[in-house]
Amino acid sequence: MMMTRWMVLGCLALVLPGAGHPEKIRVATFNASLNRDKPGTLLADLQRGDDPQIKNVAEILQIVRPDIVLINEFDYDAEGKGAKLFQERYLAVGQNEAKPLTYEYRYVAETNTGIHSGRDLDNNGQVESAVGSRGYGNDAFGFGQFPGQYGFVVYSKFPIDTKAIKTFQKVLWKDMPGALMPTKPDGTSWYSPESLDVLRLSSKNHGDVPVTLGKTTIHLLVSHPTPPAFDGPEKRNAKRNHDEIRLWADYLTGGEKASYLGKISSPSTFVILGDLNADPKDGGGVAGTADQLLKHAKVNASFIPKSEGALEASKLQKGKNESHIGDPAQDTADFNENVGNLRGDYVLPSKDLKVLSGGVFWPTEGDPLARLVAMKPTVASSDHRLVYLDLELPQASAQLPATQAKDLIGTQATFAMKVASGKKIEAAQAYFLDSESDFRSDTNLAIVIKFVDEPAFVKAGIDSILGRYEGKSIEVTGEVVRERLFTRIYVTTPEQIKVIELPN
Which of 156, 164, 177, 223 has the fewest C-beta atoms under 10 angstroms from its C-beta? Predict the structure, then answer.
Protein backbone atom coordinates (compact mmCIF):
# COMPACT_ATOMS: atom_id res chain seq x y z
CA MET A 1 0.00 0.00 0.00
CA MET A 2 1.33 3.44 -0.95
CA MET A 3 2.54 5.54 1.98
CA THR A 4 1.11 9.08 2.01
CA ARG A 5 1.90 12.05 4.19
CA TRP A 6 -1.38 11.42 6.04
CA MET A 7 -0.18 7.95 6.96
CA VAL A 8 3.09 9.46 8.11
CA LEU A 9 1.03 11.84 10.21
CA GLY A 10 -0.63 8.85 11.83
CA CYS A 11 2.69 7.14 12.40
CA LEU A 12 4.03 10.27 14.04
CA ALA A 13 1.02 10.78 16.30
CA LEU A 14 2.20 11.76 19.74
CA VAL A 15 3.07 8.81 21.91
CA LEU A 16 1.86 9.44 25.44
CA PRO A 17 2.63 7.60 28.64
CA GLY A 18 -0.17 5.52 30.12
CA ALA A 19 0.23 7.23 33.47
CA GLY A 20 1.78 10.32 34.97
CA HIS A 21 1.88 13.78 33.46
CA PRO A 22 1.93 13.77 29.62
CA GLU A 23 3.79 16.57 27.89
CA LYS A 24 1.90 16.67 24.59
CA ILE A 25 -1.52 15.72 23.29
CA ARG A 26 -3.40 15.80 19.99
CA VAL A 27 -6.92 17.24 20.25
CA ALA A 28 -9.45 17.19 17.42
CA THR A 29 -12.98 18.09 16.42
CA PHE A 30 -14.92 16.31 13.68
CA ASN A 31 -18.47 16.85 12.47
CA ALA A 32 -18.67 13.29 11.20
CA SER A 33 -22.29 13.28 9.97
CA LEU A 34 -23.09 10.19 12.02
CA ASN A 35 -26.74 11.19 12.02
CA ARG A 36 -29.63 9.43 10.37
CA ASP A 37 -33.15 10.38 9.24
CA LYS A 38 -34.99 8.07 11.63
CA PRO A 39 -34.51 7.07 15.29
CA GLY A 40 -32.63 3.81 15.71
CA THR A 41 -31.14 3.80 12.23
CA LEU A 42 -27.65 4.82 13.37
CA LEU A 43 -27.68 2.14 16.06
CA ALA A 44 -28.55 -0.46 13.42
CA ASP A 45 -25.75 0.76 11.13
CA LEU A 46 -23.28 0.70 14.01
CA GLN A 47 -24.40 -2.77 15.09
CA ARG A 48 -23.70 -4.23 11.65
CA GLY A 49 -20.08 -3.08 11.66
CA ASP A 50 -19.94 -2.75 7.88
CA ASP A 51 -21.49 0.62 7.06
CA PRO A 52 -19.22 2.25 4.42
CA GLN A 53 -19.64 5.82 5.65
CA ILE A 54 -18.98 4.90 9.28
CA LYS A 55 -15.96 2.83 8.23
CA ASN A 56 -14.56 5.89 6.43
CA VAL A 57 -15.10 8.09 9.49
CA ALA A 58 -13.31 5.49 11.64
CA GLU A 59 -10.43 5.28 9.17
CA ILE A 60 -9.93 9.06 9.26
CA LEU A 61 -9.72 8.91 13.04
CA GLN A 62 -7.32 5.96 12.88
CA ILE A 63 -5.06 7.90 10.51
CA VAL A 64 -4.98 11.17 12.48
CA ARG A 65 -5.15 9.37 15.88
CA PRO A 66 -6.22 12.20 18.19
CA ASP A 67 -5.92 11.60 21.91
CA ILE A 68 -9.15 13.51 22.48
CA VAL A 69 -11.85 14.11 19.89
CA LEU A 70 -15.29 15.71 19.83
CA ILE A 71 -17.60 14.12 17.26
CA ASN A 72 -20.50 16.35 16.24
CA GLU A 73 -23.66 15.02 14.59
CA PHE A 74 -23.73 11.66 16.34
CA ASP A 75 -27.33 10.65 17.10
CA TYR A 76 -27.91 10.50 20.86
CA ASP A 77 -29.22 7.53 22.78
CA ALA A 78 -29.60 7.74 26.55
CA GLU A 79 -27.70 4.52 27.27
CA GLY A 80 -24.71 5.46 25.12
CA LYS A 81 -25.06 2.30 23.03
CA GLY A 82 -24.13 4.10 19.82
CA ALA A 83 -20.92 5.55 21.20
CA LYS A 84 -19.95 2.12 22.57
CA LEU A 85 -20.70 0.37 19.28
CA PHE A 86 -18.66 2.88 17.30
CA GLN A 87 -15.67 2.10 19.53
CA GLU A 88 -16.13 -1.67 19.44
CA ARG A 89 -17.29 -2.32 15.86
CA TYR A 90 -15.37 0.38 13.98
CA LEU A 91 -12.56 2.15 15.87
CA ALA A 92 -11.24 -1.07 17.42
CA VAL A 93 -11.14 -2.69 13.97
CA GLY A 94 -8.38 -1.59 11.60
CA GLN A 95 -9.88 -0.03 8.49
CA ASN A 96 -7.93 -0.55 5.23
CA GLU A 97 -4.75 -1.46 7.13
CA ALA A 98 -5.00 1.52 9.48
CA LYS A 99 -4.23 0.64 13.08
CA PRO A 100 -7.13 0.11 15.50
CA LEU A 101 -7.81 3.00 17.86
CA THR A 102 -9.02 2.68 21.44
CA TYR A 103 -10.61 5.32 23.63
CA GLU A 104 -11.15 4.15 27.19
CA TYR A 105 -13.30 7.13 28.12
CA ARG A 106 -16.26 8.83 26.48
CA TYR A 107 -18.98 11.34 27.25
CA VAL A 108 -22.33 11.22 25.49
CA ALA A 109 -24.05 14.59 25.80
CA GLU A 110 -27.78 15.05 26.13
CA THR A 111 -29.08 17.28 23.36
CA ASN A 112 -31.88 19.78 22.79
CA THR A 113 -32.30 18.66 19.18
CA GLY A 114 -35.62 16.96 18.65
CA ILE A 115 -36.94 17.81 22.12
CA HIS A 116 -40.31 19.34 21.37
CA SER A 117 -40.98 22.77 22.84
CA GLY A 118 -44.76 22.63 22.75
CA ARG A 119 -44.66 26.05 21.08
CA ASP A 120 -44.88 27.39 17.53
CA LEU A 121 -41.20 28.31 17.30
CA ASP A 122 -41.16 28.79 13.52
CA ASN A 123 -44.25 31.05 13.59
CA ASN A 124 -46.08 29.15 10.89
CA GLY A 125 -49.35 29.23 12.82
CA GLN A 126 -49.31 25.68 14.15
CA VAL A 127 -47.49 23.51 16.65
CA GLU A 128 -46.30 20.44 14.74
CA SER A 129 -46.13 17.38 16.98
CA ALA A 130 -45.63 14.61 14.40
CA VAL A 131 -42.19 13.13 15.07
CA GLY A 132 -40.20 12.77 11.88
CA SER A 133 -41.53 15.83 10.08
CA ARG A 134 -39.59 18.97 9.30
CA GLY A 135 -42.26 21.01 11.07
CA TYR A 136 -41.63 18.97 14.23
CA GLY A 137 -37.95 19.79 14.00
CA ASN A 138 -38.65 23.50 13.56
CA ASP A 139 -40.73 23.53 16.75
CA ALA A 140 -38.12 21.61 18.78
CA PHE A 141 -35.64 23.41 21.07
CA GLY A 142 -32.98 22.57 18.50
CA PHE A 143 -33.76 21.36 15.01
CA GLY A 144 -34.14 17.60 14.99
CA GLN A 145 -36.84 15.45 13.46
CA PHE A 146 -36.68 13.09 16.42
CA PRO A 147 -35.26 13.38 19.95
CA GLY A 148 -31.47 12.98 19.91
CA GLN A 149 -30.78 13.64 16.25
CA TYR A 150 -27.50 15.56 15.68
CA GLY A 151 -26.07 14.97 19.17
CA PHE A 152 -22.36 14.79 20.03
CA VAL A 153 -19.85 12.54 21.78
CA VAL A 154 -16.41 13.10 23.33
CA TYR A 155 -13.84 10.28 23.09
CA SER A 156 -10.68 10.45 25.23
CA LYS A 157 -7.63 8.35 26.05
CA PHE A 158 -7.50 10.13 29.39
CA PRO A 159 -9.99 10.06 32.29
CA ILE A 160 -13.06 12.29 31.99
CA ASP A 161 -14.14 13.70 35.34
CA THR A 162 -17.82 12.97 34.75
CA LYS A 163 -18.87 14.23 38.19
CA ALA A 164 -17.45 17.68 37.43
CA ILE A 165 -19.07 18.16 34.02
CA LYS A 166 -21.11 21.35 33.73
CA THR A 167 -23.74 21.80 31.05
CA PHE A 168 -25.82 24.79 30.04
CA GLN A 169 -28.41 22.85 28.07
CA LYS A 170 -31.42 24.47 29.71
CA VAL A 171 -30.29 28.11 29.90
CA LEU A 172 -33.04 30.25 28.37
CA TRP A 173 -32.11 32.54 25.51
CA LYS A 174 -34.05 35.44 27.02
CA ASP A 175 -31.92 35.26 30.20
CA MET A 176 -28.76 36.31 28.34
CA PRO A 177 -28.35 40.07 28.94
CA GLY A 178 -28.37 41.95 25.64
CA ALA A 179 -29.26 38.86 23.61
CA LEU A 180 -29.63 39.35 19.85
CA MET A 181 -33.32 38.44 19.83
CA PRO A 182 -34.97 38.38 16.39
CA THR A 183 -37.60 41.02 15.74
CA LYS A 184 -40.42 41.68 13.28
CA PRO A 185 -40.27 44.64 10.86
CA ASP A 186 -42.17 46.78 13.41
CA GLY A 187 -39.48 46.11 16.04
CA THR A 188 -41.55 43.78 18.22
CA SER A 189 -40.31 40.36 19.26
CA TRP A 190 -40.43 37.71 16.55
CA TYR A 191 -41.05 35.09 19.24
CA SER A 192 -44.22 35.14 21.33
CA PRO A 193 -43.91 35.62 25.11
CA GLU A 194 -45.00 32.00 25.51
CA SER A 195 -42.18 30.83 23.25
CA LEU A 196 -39.57 32.98 24.99
CA ASP A 197 -40.57 31.48 28.33
CA VAL A 198 -39.31 28.06 27.21
CA LEU A 199 -36.85 28.65 24.34
CA ARG A 200 -33.38 27.41 25.25
CA LEU A 201 -30.26 29.19 24.03
CA SER A 202 -28.26 26.07 23.19
CA SER A 203 -29.53 24.32 20.06
CA LYS A 204 -27.80 21.07 21.15
CA ASN A 205 -25.88 21.52 24.39
CA HIS A 206 -22.93 23.47 25.80
CA GLY A 207 -20.72 21.37 28.06
CA ASP A 208 -17.59 21.95 30.12
CA VAL A 209 -16.00 18.50 30.18
CA PRO A 210 -12.89 18.21 32.41
CA VAL A 211 -10.25 15.70 31.30
CA THR A 212 -7.51 14.69 33.75
CA LEU A 213 -3.97 14.41 32.39
CA GLY A 214 -1.75 13.64 35.33
CA LYS A 215 -1.65 16.80 37.43
CA THR A 216 -3.30 18.91 34.74
CA THR A 217 -7.00 19.23 34.02
CA ILE A 218 -8.07 20.48 30.60
CA HIS A 219 -11.63 21.70 30.28
CA LEU A 220 -13.16 20.77 26.94
CA LEU A 221 -15.74 23.41 26.02
CA VAL A 222 -17.88 21.46 23.58
CA SER A 223 -20.89 22.57 21.55
CA HIS A 224 -22.44 22.71 18.08
CA PRO A 225 -24.27 26.02 17.55
CA THR A 226 -27.09 26.18 15.04
CA PRO A 227 -26.08 27.17 11.49
CA PRO A 228 -26.83 30.78 10.50
CA ALA A 229 -29.23 29.60 7.78
CA PHE A 230 -32.69 28.11 7.20
CA ASP A 231 -34.44 31.20 8.57
CA GLY A 232 -36.01 34.37 7.17
CA PRO A 233 -35.43 38.12 7.25
CA GLU A 234 -35.65 38.02 11.05
CA LYS A 235 -32.36 36.00 11.02
CA ARG A 236 -33.36 34.00 14.08
CA ASN A 237 -30.81 31.25 13.42
CA ALA A 238 -27.97 33.65 12.61
CA LYS A 239 -28.63 35.56 15.82
CA ARG A 240 -28.93 32.40 17.87
CA ASN A 241 -25.63 31.18 16.41
CA HIS A 242 -24.03 34.45 17.53
CA ASP A 243 -25.37 34.12 21.05
CA GLU A 244 -24.53 30.42 21.37
CA ILE A 245 -20.92 31.34 20.65
CA ARG A 246 -21.17 34.34 22.96
CA LEU A 247 -22.10 31.95 25.77
CA TRP A 248 -18.56 30.55 25.72
CA ALA A 249 -17.06 34.05 25.60
CA ASP A 250 -19.13 35.02 28.64
CA TYR A 251 -18.20 31.80 30.44
CA LEU A 252 -14.51 32.51 29.97
CA THR A 253 -14.87 36.15 31.00
CA GLY A 254 -16.88 35.24 34.10
CA GLY A 255 -18.17 37.77 36.59
CA GLU A 256 -21.33 39.75 35.92
CA LYS A 257 -21.27 38.95 32.19
CA ALA A 258 -21.78 35.28 33.01
CA SER A 259 -24.28 35.69 35.86
CA TYR A 260 -27.09 34.18 33.75
CA LEU A 261 -25.13 30.90 33.70
CA GLY A 262 -25.41 30.49 37.46
CA LYS A 263 -22.56 29.92 39.88
CA ILE A 264 -19.51 29.16 37.76
CA SER A 265 -15.76 29.18 38.00
CA SER A 266 -14.15 30.09 34.68
CA PRO A 267 -11.46 27.55 33.71
CA SER A 268 -7.90 28.67 33.06
CA THR A 269 -6.80 25.67 30.96
CA PHE A 270 -9.25 24.73 28.23
CA VAL A 271 -9.83 23.84 24.60
CA ILE A 272 -12.92 25.05 22.74
CA LEU A 273 -14.07 22.31 20.36
CA GLY A 274 -16.83 22.02 17.83
CA ASP A 275 -18.49 22.82 14.57
CA LEU A 276 -19.34 26.41 15.47
CA ASN A 277 -20.93 27.16 12.09
CA ALA A 278 -19.20 30.55 12.04
CA ASP A 279 -16.67 31.61 9.41
CA PRO A 280 -14.79 34.76 10.52
CA LYS A 281 -14.82 36.24 7.01
CA ASP A 282 -17.55 34.65 4.90
CA GLY A 283 -20.92 32.95 5.14
CA GLY A 284 -24.30 34.18 6.33
CA GLY A 285 -23.64 34.76 10.02
CA VAL A 286 -23.76 37.93 12.09
CA ALA A 287 -20.57 39.96 11.58
CA GLY A 288 -18.03 39.39 14.35
CA THR A 289 -19.59 36.15 15.62
CA ALA A 290 -16.43 34.03 15.46
CA ASP A 291 -14.30 36.93 16.70
CA GLN A 292 -16.02 36.69 20.09
CA LEU A 293 -13.73 33.69 20.65
CA LEU A 294 -10.91 34.29 18.18
CA LYS A 295 -10.15 37.64 19.81
CA HIS A 296 -10.95 36.69 23.40
CA ALA A 297 -8.24 37.59 25.89
CA LYS A 298 -7.98 34.00 27.19
CA VAL A 299 -7.97 32.22 23.81
CA ASN A 300 -4.86 31.30 21.82
CA ALA A 301 -6.09 31.59 18.22
CA SER A 302 -2.70 32.41 16.72
CA PHE A 303 -2.33 29.09 14.88
CA ILE A 304 -4.88 28.50 12.11
CA PRO A 305 -5.05 24.91 10.78
CA LYS A 306 -4.91 24.68 6.99
CA SER A 307 -4.90 22.09 4.23
CA GLU A 308 -3.88 21.83 0.59
CA GLY A 309 -7.11 19.96 -0.07
CA ALA A 310 -9.24 22.92 0.96
CA LEU A 311 -7.30 25.26 -1.31
CA GLU A 312 -7.67 22.87 -4.24
CA ALA A 313 -11.39 22.30 -3.62
CA SER A 314 -12.09 26.03 -3.63
CA LYS A 315 -10.38 26.45 -7.00
CA LEU A 316 -12.11 23.46 -8.57
CA GLN A 317 -15.56 24.22 -7.20
CA LYS A 318 -15.58 27.94 -8.01
CA GLY A 319 -19.10 29.41 -7.61
CA LYS A 320 -19.50 31.32 -4.36
CA ASN A 321 -15.90 30.50 -3.44
CA GLU A 322 -14.70 33.06 -5.97
CA SER A 323 -16.25 35.92 -4.00
CA HIS A 324 -15.09 34.77 -0.57
CA ILE A 325 -12.53 37.00 1.12
CA GLY A 326 -11.17 34.48 3.64
CA ASP A 327 -8.14 32.28 2.95
CA PRO A 328 -9.59 29.14 1.29
CA ALA A 329 -6.78 27.00 2.75
CA GLN A 330 -8.42 27.57 6.15
CA ASP A 331 -11.78 26.09 5.09
CA THR A 332 -13.02 23.09 7.06
CA ALA A 333 -16.36 22.37 5.35
CA ASP A 334 -17.10 21.41 1.75
CA PHE A 335 -20.47 22.95 0.85
CA ASN A 336 -22.07 23.38 -2.56
CA GLU A 337 -21.09 26.12 -5.01
CA ASN A 338 -24.07 28.27 -4.00
CA VAL A 339 -22.76 28.54 -0.44
CA GLY A 340 -19.05 27.99 -0.93
CA ASN A 341 -16.62 26.28 1.40
CA LEU A 342 -16.20 27.76 4.85
CA ARG A 343 -14.18 27.64 8.04
CA GLY A 344 -16.62 26.45 10.69
CA ASP A 345 -14.82 23.85 12.81
CA TYR A 346 -12.48 24.92 15.58
CA VAL A 347 -9.90 23.73 18.08
CA LEU A 348 -9.12 26.82 20.20
CA PRO A 349 -6.85 26.34 23.23
CA SER A 350 -6.24 28.59 26.21
CA LYS A 351 -3.12 30.74 26.20
CA ASP A 352 -1.25 28.48 28.61
CA LEU A 353 -1.31 25.70 26.03
CA LYS A 354 1.43 25.94 23.40
CA VAL A 355 0.43 24.94 19.87
CA LEU A 356 3.11 22.74 18.29
CA SER A 357 1.37 21.98 15.01
CA GLY A 358 -2.01 21.19 13.55
CA GLY A 359 -4.00 20.74 10.41
CA VAL A 360 -7.19 19.78 8.61
CA PHE A 361 -7.63 16.29 7.18
CA TRP A 362 -8.44 17.20 3.59
CA PRO A 363 -6.31 15.24 1.09
CA THR A 364 -5.93 16.61 -2.43
CA GLU A 365 -7.53 14.76 -5.32
CA GLY A 366 -4.30 13.00 -6.27
CA ASP A 367 -3.84 11.55 -2.80
CA PRO A 368 -4.93 7.89 -2.39
CA LEU A 369 -6.83 8.94 0.73
CA ALA A 370 -8.95 11.46 -1.16
CA ARG A 371 -11.56 8.69 -1.33
CA LEU A 372 -12.28 9.33 2.37
CA VAL A 373 -13.47 12.89 1.76
CA ALA A 374 -15.11 12.43 -1.65
CA MET A 375 -18.42 14.27 -2.09
CA LYS A 376 -19.57 12.45 -5.25
CA PRO A 377 -21.33 10.26 -6.20
CA THR A 378 -22.18 10.00 -2.49
CA VAL A 379 -20.64 11.66 0.54
CA ALA A 380 -17.86 9.30 1.62
CA SER A 381 -17.68 10.52 5.23
CA SER A 382 -18.93 14.05 5.87
CA ASP A 383 -19.17 17.52 4.38
CA HIS A 384 -16.92 18.65 7.25
CA ARG A 385 -13.27 17.83 7.76
CA LEU A 386 -11.47 16.74 10.91
CA VAL A 387 -9.46 19.59 12.49
CA TYR A 388 -6.67 18.91 14.99
CA LEU A 389 -3.96 20.63 17.05
CA ASP A 390 -0.91 19.20 18.78
CA LEU A 391 -0.60 20.91 22.15
CA GLU A 392 2.15 21.11 24.73
CA LEU A 393 0.75 20.98 28.23
CA PRO A 394 1.82 23.27 31.05
CA GLN A 395 4.46 21.68 33.23
CA ALA A 396 3.23 20.26 36.48
CA SER A 397 3.00 23.08 38.97
CA ALA A 398 5.52 23.46 41.73
CA GLN A 399 4.15 23.27 45.27
CA LEU A 400 2.45 26.45 46.42
CA PRO A 401 1.49 27.40 49.96
CA ALA A 402 -2.20 26.97 50.77
CA THR A 403 -2.47 30.65 51.63
CA GLN A 404 -2.12 31.50 47.91
CA ALA A 405 -5.11 29.42 46.86
CA LYS A 406 -7.62 32.26 47.31
CA ASP A 407 -5.80 34.21 44.59
CA LEU A 408 -5.89 31.33 42.11
CA ILE A 409 -9.62 30.69 41.69
CA GLY A 410 -10.31 28.70 38.52
CA THR A 411 -6.68 27.57 38.28
CA GLN A 412 -5.28 24.05 38.34
CA ALA A 413 -2.45 24.03 40.89
CA THR A 414 -0.52 21.94 43.41
CA PHE A 415 -0.41 23.00 47.06
CA ALA A 416 1.54 21.84 50.09
CA MET A 417 -0.20 22.21 53.46
CA LYS A 418 -0.55 20.71 56.89
CA VAL A 419 -4.06 19.51 57.68
CA ALA A 420 -4.84 21.53 60.80
CA SER A 421 -8.37 20.22 61.09
CA GLY A 422 -10.35 17.34 59.63
CA LYS A 423 -14.11 16.87 59.78
CA LYS A 424 -16.75 14.44 58.57
CA ILE A 425 -19.87 16.46 57.77
CA GLU A 426 -22.94 14.26 57.25
CA ALA A 427 -25.07 17.16 55.97
CA ALA A 428 -22.59 17.83 53.18
CA GLN A 429 -21.91 14.12 52.59
CA ALA A 430 -18.20 14.91 52.55
CA TYR A 431 -14.91 15.04 54.48
CA PHE A 432 -13.22 18.42 54.90
CA LEU A 433 -9.46 18.78 55.42
CA ASP A 434 -8.65 22.39 56.38
CA SER A 435 -5.28 24.09 56.20
CA GLU A 436 -6.18 26.27 59.19
CA SER A 437 -7.94 25.50 62.45
CA ASP A 438 -10.50 28.22 61.71
CA PHE A 439 -12.26 27.11 58.53
CA ARG A 440 -13.76 30.60 58.19
CA SER A 441 -10.33 32.19 57.74
CA ASP A 442 -9.91 34.01 54.43
CA THR A 443 -6.66 32.13 53.81
CA ASN A 444 -8.00 28.67 54.65
CA LEU A 445 -7.93 26.05 51.91
CA ALA A 446 -10.41 23.20 52.35
CA ILE A 447 -9.80 19.87 50.66
CA VAL A 448 -13.18 18.23 50.07
CA ILE A 449 -13.60 14.49 49.55
CA LYS A 450 -17.21 13.45 48.97
CA PHE A 451 -18.59 10.26 50.45
CA VAL A 452 -19.38 8.95 46.96
CA ASP A 453 -15.66 9.08 46.12
CA GLU A 454 -14.57 7.26 49.30
CA PRO A 455 -14.58 3.77 47.69
CA ALA A 456 -11.67 4.82 45.45
CA PHE A 457 -9.62 5.57 48.56
CA VAL A 458 -10.62 2.30 50.21
CA LYS A 459 -9.57 0.46 47.06
CA ALA A 460 -6.17 2.19 47.36
CA GLY A 461 -5.80 0.91 50.92
CA ILE A 462 -6.96 4.09 52.69
CA ASP A 463 -9.67 2.84 55.05
CA SER A 464 -10.02 6.11 56.97
CA ILE A 465 -9.85 9.50 55.29
CA LEU A 466 -9.38 11.39 58.55
CA GLY A 467 -7.00 8.80 59.95
CA ARG A 468 -4.86 9.02 56.84
CA TYR A 469 -4.63 12.80 56.42
CA GLU A 470 -5.63 14.71 59.58
CA GLY A 471 -2.61 16.30 61.25
CA LYS A 472 -0.37 15.28 58.34
CA SER A 473 1.45 17.36 55.76
CA ILE A 474 0.01 16.76 52.30
CA GLU A 475 0.48 17.68 48.66
CA VAL A 476 -2.78 18.16 46.81
CA THR A 477 -3.48 18.92 43.15
CA GLY A 478 -6.74 20.17 41.71
CA GLU A 479 -8.77 23.09 40.49
CA VAL A 480 -9.31 25.87 43.02
CA VAL A 481 -12.95 26.90 43.36
CA ARG A 482 -14.74 29.52 45.42
CA GLU A 483 -18.05 28.50 46.97
CA ARG A 484 -19.82 31.19 48.95
CA LEU A 485 -16.92 32.53 51.04
CA PHE A 486 -14.81 29.38 51.07
CA THR A 487 -11.79 28.36 48.98
CA ARG A 488 -11.82 24.66 48.12
CA ILE A 489 -10.33 21.88 46.04
CA TYR A 490 -12.45 18.81 45.35
CA VAL A 491 -10.45 15.59 45.41
CA THR A 492 -12.05 12.60 43.70
CA THR A 493 -9.14 10.14 43.51
CA PRO A 494 -6.27 9.25 45.87
CA GLU A 495 -3.80 10.17 43.11
CA GLN A 496 -4.60 13.85 43.72
CA ILE A 497 -3.41 13.82 47.32
CA LYS A 498 -0.39 12.35 49.07
CA VAL A 499 1.28 12.61 52.46
CA ILE A 500 4.63 14.39 52.40
CA GLU A 501 7.19 15.85 54.76
CA LEU A 502 7.34 19.62 54.99
CA PRO A 503 10.52 21.37 56.16
CA ASN A 504 10.28 22.81 59.65
Answer: 177
pLDDT 10s digits, 410-444: 888 899 999 999 999 999 999 999 999 999 999 99
Helices (H), 320-386: none
Angle ∠(48,50,56) on CA atoms, nearest 5: 135
- Are 242 and 321 members of one domain? yes
Q: What's the number of domains the chain is made of? A: 2
Q: How far is 164 from 178, CA to CA, in rounded Å? A: 29
Residues 157 and 59 in one domain: yes
Residue 443, in any domain of the structure: yes
- 99 and 163 in a single domain? The answer is yes
What's the average model confidence in pLDDT over 13-31? 71
Beta bridge partners, 69, equal 28, 155
For 226, residues 6+ apart whose C-beta sits below 8 A from its C-beta are 142, 143, 203, 237, 240, 241, 244, 277
489 vs 504: CA distance, rounded Å: 25
Q: What pLDDT, on a 0 to 100 scale, did the predictor assign at position 4?
A: 54
Say how many C-beta atoms besides its own lie within 10 A of residue 348's C-beta. 25
Peptide bond into 394 cis (omega under 30): no
Q: Under DSSP, is residue 359 helix (H, G, I), strand (E, B) or coil?
A: strand
269 part of a folded domain: yes
Q: Residues 343, 475: one domain? A: no
138 inside domain: no
**Within this chain, do residues 346 and 425 fall inside the same structural domain, yes or no?**
no
CB 435 within 8 A of CB 444: yes
- Say whether pLDDT at 105 is over 80: yes
Closest CA to 416 of 464, 472, 352, 456: 472
Q: Is 214 exposed, middle or buried (0-12, 13-18, 19+ CB in 10 A)?
A: middle
Is 10 contained in some domain? no
From the number of C-beta atoms within 10 Å of its C-beta (0-12, 13-18, 19+), residue 78 rates as exposed
Alpha helices in 179-235 (DSSP H): 193-196
Which burial class, exposed, middle or buried, applies to 262 when counting CB atoms under 10 A from its CB (0-12, 13-18, 19+)? Answer: exposed
Neighbours of 397 (CB within 10 A): 15
The reported pTM is: 0.81
CATH classification at residue 35: 3.60.10.10
For 170, the domain range is: 25-113+148-392
CB count in 10 Å sphere of residue 293:
22
Q: Show which of 350, 369, 392 is a domain's final residue.
A: 392
